[in-house]
Write a structure and sequence with these properties.
alpha+beta; Nucleotidyltransferase, domain 5; Substrate Binding Domain Of DNAk, Chain A, domain 1; Substrate Binding Domain Of Dnak, Chain:A, Domain 2; six-stranded mixed beta sheet; 14 helices; about 35% helix; elongated; binds adenosine monophosphate
């Protein structure tokens, strides 16, 4: 019999944690070695044995190719899509990122069951706020493969805020969560209002963290040790690089409390050893560019939340890398205040996951959590434009929809391309999936297809298209395999939408004007034939001139959207009498038909 426990799990890039609310208290559970932090590492042995955690990290030193680490960076991506290159070949091991994550989750489940002496089947799992749909789905799938019902996918900053107990403070609090872990960076602005948490904005980078500092420092150590100046760091064997990276991480951590440390790697190249002194200022010089990147995200999150630094009540730090003095100084400078460091930065997210699990299990007071969508979601419409259905930073769960019609006569299906991104043109956004919606063929504008986007509390998107005539539904599940995006470009997408705002807007106005022009010019040609001889010759000349001007502008490069819009309007005005004549003719024809003439 499964127990009523719901596990709270922080499935981290470097380390993972599992816990549960027991007798009203959130606790993190320790593994057989007495450690509450389980390294997110899995070693696959030659006979199919799977080793997870510290034991796997020990194996990494001797068998790097069969030891998978930082797999979170590969979640929800296709092979080779990630900017990050792992020192192992996942496909060669016959594994997917989801399977490796499932192995870690199985291990955490076993740790919990051993500590609780009861089987557990339900869990809350955290993901970076910046994880997109595919990545959240992949995480959920990993949970299911580990034999867990995933009750909630929880954004990490929201979990952290829960751990800091910010839900118990007075109302109308605004806080920022700065989370720099091993592999990812997130910054979010949250608001506590009437007992409800709301994420006002979120920004970050799924490819930025302590691992990057380790690699940069490892290369620096090699360049400065003078062992073999002719050999570049990248030309070292992967095992040698791993040794340097491990030493770099040790030195980095040490430099959070001392100002200088020595790196010593005996017998690095045969008899020769690596021996270098690294100072905190050396490390800070190498870390500074990463700090600048986090600063940009912080400013963006504040701007998106329409929030000034002075509107914030607290800034909390999460993630092991926030122990670095330079990180704290950076946060202090950006937010102009001392950050709250009262929680253990490694455990805050795990604790928050446990608290949320406790709330769901009914063992803790209810707090409603609201999250936001990191990027806009929409569909492609006629002319290749992006039609946003759910704007970025919308609170989830949410639903929104729109009615679409056929643009051409006798069309019998409509292709719905689901897009994610901030750009005005469909081609610049990412396609999450596509589905063809059939409907009975008819004249232009006769079909009525309702498209609804629904994002559930886990941030997973479902697209429903309904032909209102037949009531037939087409459902598109956005599954991880359908994502054709490079997720490390999420931040770039937002930056580009700002950089190209002017060009994009111009292209949108142009496309809209062009569609109108094409419709107008053909209609005017036909009307002139139908009403020949009924108009004043001068008026006909004027209409022809206006029509020719629209056609000329359609061919002009570069596109002049404003001129085309003006020409459309002039043509519209010039054809007022023509339009009246057309209506009269249509009425006469109808009357004749009625009278049987
Ligand atoms: P997390 O993903 O939150 O578990 O954070 C792990 C990252 O924090 C790794 O890159 C660690 O190297 C880093 N880290 C842990 N302790 C320290 C420390 N004392 N100083 C600097 N970085 C640290």
């Amino acid at each position: 019999m499964a127990s009523d426990y719901i596990l709270g799990i922080d499935l981290g890039t470097t380390n993972s944690l599992v816990g549960v609310v027991d007798s009203g208290f959130p606790i993190l559970l320790a593994d057989g070695e007495g450690s509450r932090m389980t390294p997110s590492a899995v070693h696959y042995g030659p006979d199919g044995e799977v080793v997870v955690g510290s034991a796997a990290v020990r194996q990494r030193a001797v068998d790097v190719q069969h030891t998978v680490t930082s797999v979170k960076r590969l979640m929800g991506r296709r092979a080779g899509e990630s900017a990050w290159q792992p020192p192992y070949d996942l496909a060669g091991l016959g594994k997917t990122a989801v399977q490796v994550s499932a192995d870690i989750l199985k291990h955490l489940k076993a740790v919990a069951e051993r500590a609780l002496e009861a089987p557990v089947t339900r869990a809350v799992i955290t993901v970076p706020a910046f994880f997109n749909d595919a990545q959240r789905n992949a995480t959920k799938l990993a949970g299911e493969q580990a034999g867990l019902t995933v009750e909630r996918i929880l954004a990490e900053p929201t979990a952290a805020a829960l751990a800091y107990g910010l839900d118990k403070l007075e109302e109308h609090r605004r806080i920022a969560v700065y989370d720099l872990g091993g592999g990812t960076f997130d910054v979010s602005v949250l608001e506590m209002r009437d007992g409800v948490f709301q994420v006002l904005s979120t920004a970050g980078d799924t490819q930025l963290g302590g691992d990057d500092i380790d690699r940069t420092l490892a290369a620096w150590i090699w360049d400065n040790c003078g062992l073999d100046p002719a050999r570049a760091y990248d030309d070292l064997q992967s095992l040698q690089r791993m040794r340097l990276i491990a030493a770099a991480e040790e030195a980095k951590k040490h430099l959070s409390s001392v100002s200088s440390t020595e790196v010593l790697l005996p017998f690095f190249l045969e008899q020769q050893s690596v021996q270098v002194t690294v100072t905190r200022s050396d490390l800070e010089g190498l870390t500074q560019p990463l700090m600048e990147r986090t600063r940009k995200h912080c400013l963006r999150a504040l701007a998106d939340a329409r929030c000034e630094v002075s509107d914030l009540h607290d800034v909390i730090l999460v993630g092991g890398s926030t122990r670095m003095p330079l990180v704290r100084a950076t946060v202090r400078a950006i937010f102009q205040r001392e950050p709250d460091v009262s929680q253990n930065p490694d455990e805050a997210i795990g604790m928050g996951a446990v608290i949320q699990a406790g709330i769901l299990a009914g063992s803790l007071r209810q707090v409603v959590l609201l999250d936001v969508t990191p990027l806009s979601l929409g569909i492609e419409t006629f002319g290749g434009l992006m039609n946003v259905i759910i704007p970025r930073n919308s609170t989830i769960p949410c639903k929104a929809g729109e009615m679409f019609t056929n643009a051409v006569a006798n069309q019998s299906e409509m292709l719905i391309r689901v897009l994610q991104g901030e750009r005005e043109l469909a081609k610049d956004n990412w396609e999450l999936g596509r589905v063809a919606v059939p409907f009975p063929a008819g004249p232009k504008g006769s079909a009525r297809v309702g498209v609804q986007f629904a994002i559930d509390a886990n941030g997973i998107l479902q697209v429903l298209a309904r032909d209102t005539a037949t009531q037939a539904d087409t459902v598109l599940e956005i599954q991880n395999s359908a994502v054709d995006v490079d997720d490390s470009r999420v931040e770039q997408m937002i930056a580009e939408s700002v950089d190209f705002a002017f060009e994009d807007m111009n292209e949108r106005i142009w496309t809209e004007a062009r569609l109108k022009s094409e419709e107008l010019t053909t209609a005017v040609d036909e009307a002139l034939i139908q009403c020949e001889g009924l108009l004043e010759p001068a008026e006909t000349v004027k209409i022809r001139e206006c029509n020719a001007e629209v056609r000329r502008l359609l061919g002009v490069e570069p596109h002049d959207a404003r001129a085309l819009k003006a020409a459309n309007q002039a043509l519209d005005e010039a054809t007022q009498t023509l339009a009246v004549l057309l209506v009269e003719r249509a009425m006469e024809a109808a009357l004749e038909r009625k009278l049987g003439l």
